[in-house]
Amino acid sequence: MIGKRGAEKYLSLWWFLVLVLMALAVVAGVAVNTSSDANTREFEAGLLMTRAVDCLISKGYVNEQFMAGNFDIFSECSLDKEMINESAKYYLKIEAYKYEDCDISKGNFECKNPFLKKQFGVVDFENQCKMTGARYPRCAERYAYALYVQGNEIIKTVVHFFAGSNEKGTRWVVGGVM
Amino acid sequence: MNKKGIVMEEIIFIVLNLIFFVVVMLFIVNSAGGQVVLEQKYAKEIAFIIEEAKPGTAVYLNMGDAFGKTKLAREQVVNIDDKQNQVIVKLSSGGGYMVPYFSDVDVKLEVYGDVLFMQINKKEATS
Fold first, then answer.
1. Residues A118-134 pLDDT 10s
2. What beta strand segments (E) does B22-94 contain?
3. Do B27 and A26 touch (CB under 8 A)?
4. Residue of chain A with shortest Cα separation from B123
5. What is the pLDDT of residue B2?
6. Is beta strand A138-150 parallel, antiparallel or unpaired with respect to A153-165?
């Protein structure tokens, strides 16, 4: 390049190629980033869990009809039965334990022998949520103290709520789905 | 080449590089706030609002940035499919972004300027 003038030196074919390659890399990076789905599964699992908690526990008392088995959680809590049970994208588990059957001495809940257990959706999400990777669902759980009125007796219970979601959203284009 | 020529050469080189990087930066900034990103953002946000809301809730959502990036009528941007329970947001006629929601509720939408108004009610039983 020695002896060449400025414009010839910097607008040479090689320099042009370098700029094109850089531009292509940026365009590819932006395209991959903008077309990818934001990971909101854990947030949505938390929403499903919170909806169940709010619906079943009120002022510290767990819903008696639910505990007695005379409660349609879908219609009473405005949840879509078909979406949760058949879309293969959601999981909801509710377990009730007697307070005496739970050990919270180490700061963690360790409960055994649930006297009530209800599961909806994909049961295997409980195992899949332990795995790392974008294709696995994400889960949220909460233990809640609640009182259960059974006849004239008030029972101290711990209710375990566990929810999972693998809903990623879908880009839709005219003529098909991406 | 004299000293003045060498300085001009360097200036041309720096200016060309600056122009290139400014164009690249404008492309990145424009893409980050583009239709594809906004469609996904609002579809998910609206679906989560519906999932979180108790029946009887009314929500106002400012969608001025999305409405400013579409040639479609504002009433056509957000659609709710009550049967499939999913939100569809489209900012171009070529497609959009779909997000299903697990709540079984009735959602009524109205647009007032830049604001989307959502009324979420308990679904009435159909015979």
1. 999 999 999 999 998 88
2. 57-62, 78-81, 86-92
3. yes
4. A78
5. 73
6. antiparallel
Would you say A94 and A115 are in contact if contact means Cβ atoms under 8 Å apart? Answer: no
Cβ distance A83 to B101 less than 8 Å, yes or no, reads: yes
Residue with tokens 């405005």: A78
Separation of alpha carbons A165 and B49, rounded Å? 16
| Inter-chain touch B93–A167, beta carbons under 8 Å | no
Task: Flag if B104 and A74 touch (Cβ within 8 Å).
Answer: yes
Q: Phi and psi for A86 in degrees, rounded to 5?
A: -120, -10
Q: What angle do CA A127, A83, A167 make, to 5 degrees?
A: 55
Amino acid at the residue B61: L
Dihedral through CA A87, CA B106, CA A117, CA A71, nearest 10? -140
The parent domain of residue A162 ranges over 59-167
pLDDT per residue as tens digits for the range A10-52: 567 777 788 889 889 988 888 777 767 778 899 999 999 999 9
- Which chain B residues have a beta carbon less than 8 Å from that of A31? 31
| pLDDT one digit per residue (tens) for chain B, 127 residues | 577 777 887 888 788 888 988 988 888 877 777 888 899 999 999 999 999 998 999 999 999 999 998 899 999 999 999 888 999 999 988 888 999 999 999 999 999 999 999 999 998 765 4
Let me know if residue A26 belongs to a domain.
Answer: no
Nearest-CB residue to B98 (from A10, A90, A172) = A172
Determine the residue of chain A that is closest to B24 in CA distance: A23
Q: Is B110 helix (H, G, I), strand (E, B) or coil?
A: strand
> What ipTM goes with this model?
0.79
By Cβ distance, the residue of B16, B97, B100 closest to A167 is B100
- Has residue A28 been placed in a domain? no
How many domains, in total, are found in chain A? 1
- Domains of chain B in start order, with CATH, are 35-122 (2.60.40)
